[in-house]
């Protein structure tokens, strides 16, 4: 049994006041996603990669400058550029490979292709049904993780393009930080001296959540045989689920 809720006040009531009743998540889906989304790098490790981030960022800046060199204005696919930037980081940071290797770059893009994953799943369904179930869950998570960074970049640039005042404020903060730190942006600077950037990123995540639907399972407390939700609706099954969209909170 389950209930899809849309009222923001009811969602806040469940998530805050009655959170003890809804600590459990869908054991078949969310536990897999939570375990796979644990940080792979410590803060110290990330600090060591900032020189690589800076190099890749400079490469992207030169690429965009070349696009506008001829006419001063260029029309391009920003989604592809964000995917290119993300692939560069994955190749150099995660795989420690040469980002100029075109074959490897194309291979990484193939692995993130929905068609590739669907084809692999179809093969497993025919030859190994049990493996197919596992592959479907894991491949879906991998695909989402791979695309999360490029999607966040794309949506951020879109919102900045649609909100000129916010774009100007953010640009001013970045220019001030660069002038105060000899043109360098470090891990410490981002975490302590760029509050406006932090607000922009958090707002993008609020508007475009990576996981649009949240699932919670009812957990009855000791001595309880049912739970009355506001407005009163009795739930007695321990497997009773509530689902809500994060967009409902916008």
From TrEMBL:
Molecular function in Gene Ontology: heme binding; iron ion binding; monooxygenase activity; oxidoreductase activity, acting on paired donors, with incorporation or reduction of molecular oxygen
GO annotations of cellular component type: endoplasmic reticulum membrane
Pfam families xrefs: p450
Keywords: Endoplasmic reticulum, Heme, Iron, Membrane, Metal-binding, Microsome, Monooxygenase, Oxidoreductase
Signal peptide: none
InterPro entries the UniProt entry points to: Cyt_P450, Cyt_P450_sf, Insect_CytP450_Detox
Cofactor field: heme
Cellular localization per UniProt: Endoplasmic reticulum membrane; Microsome membrane
Coiled coil: none
Membrane topology qualifier: Peripheral membrane protein
Family per record: Belongs to the cytochrome P450 family.
Alphabetized PANTHER family for the sequence: CYTOCHROME P450, CYTOCHROME P450 6G1-RELATED
Protein's UniProt name: Cytochrome P450
Species annotation: Megaselia scalaris (Humpbacked fly)
Organism placement in taxonomy: Eukaryota, Metazoa, Ecdysozoa, Arthropoda, Hexapoda
């Amino acid at each position: 049994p389950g209930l899809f809720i849309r009222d923001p006040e009811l969602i806040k009531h469940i998530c805050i006041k009655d959170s003890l009743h809804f600590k459990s998540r869908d054991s078949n889906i969310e536990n897999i996603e939570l375990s796979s989304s644990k940080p792979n790098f410590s803060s110290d490790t990330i600090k060591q990669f900032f020189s690589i981030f800076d190099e890749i960022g400079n490469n992207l800046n030169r690429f965009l400058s070349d696009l506008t060199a001829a006419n001063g204005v260029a029309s391009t696919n920003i989604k592809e550029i964000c995917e290119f930037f993300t692939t560069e980081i994955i190749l150099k940071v995660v795989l420690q490979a040469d980002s100029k290797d075109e074959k490897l770059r194309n291979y990484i893009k193939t692995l993130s292709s929905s068609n590739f994953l669907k084809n692999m799943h179809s093969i497993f369904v025919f030859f190994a049904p049990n493996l197919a179930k596992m592959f479907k869950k894991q491949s879906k998570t991998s695909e989402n993780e791979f695309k999360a960074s490029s999607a966040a970049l794309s949506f951020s640039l879109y919102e900045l393009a649609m909100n000129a005042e916010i774009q100007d404020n953010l640009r001013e903060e970045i220019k001030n930080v660069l002038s105060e730190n000899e043109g360098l942006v470090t891990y410490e600077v981002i975490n302590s001296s760029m509050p406006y950037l932090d607000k922009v990123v958090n707002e993008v995540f609020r508007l475009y959540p990576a996981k649009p639907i949240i699932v919670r399972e009812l957990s009855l407390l000791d001595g309880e045989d049912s739970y009355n939700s506001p407005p009163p609706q009795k739930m007695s099954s321990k497997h009773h689920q509530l689902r809500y969209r994060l967009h409902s909170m916008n």
